[in-house]
Amino acid sequence: MAASSRAQVLDLYRAMLRESKHFSAYNYRTYAVRRIRDAFRENKNVKDPVEIQALVNKAKRDLGIIRRQVHIGQMYSTNKLIIENQETPRT
């Protein structure tokens, strides 16, 4: 993989993780982070430049989908789950 292609993939990976952490719903947030990590790990050994470019294009489309879903989720937000309230107990 060329250096510029590697940098592009890493930037895309970071952008997808950053955007997915903005999901208001805990389940969507954890699923998106897990799925992004799994997909990038699954394809880390791909060497064919044509296949790499196809995967990069798919990831860019997925990033757009994540951004749209985050905005929709923010418009229709719900209450936080108990697991999300990470307050320290008072002693």
From TrEMBL:
Signal peptide: none annotated. InterPro entries: Complex1_LYR_dom, Complex1_LYR_LYRM4, ISC_assembly_LYR. Residues 7-64 form the Complex 1 LYR protein domain. GO terms for biological process: iron-sulfur cluster assembly. It holds the Pfam family Complex1_LYR. GO terms for cellular component: L-cysteine desulfurase complex; mitochondrion. PANTHER family: LYR MOTIF-CONTAINING PROTEIN 4 (PTHR13166:SF7), PROTEIN C6ORF149 (PTHR13166). Belongs to the complex I LYR family. This is LYR motif containing 4. It comes from Ailuropoda melanoleuca (Giant panda). The gene is LYRM4.
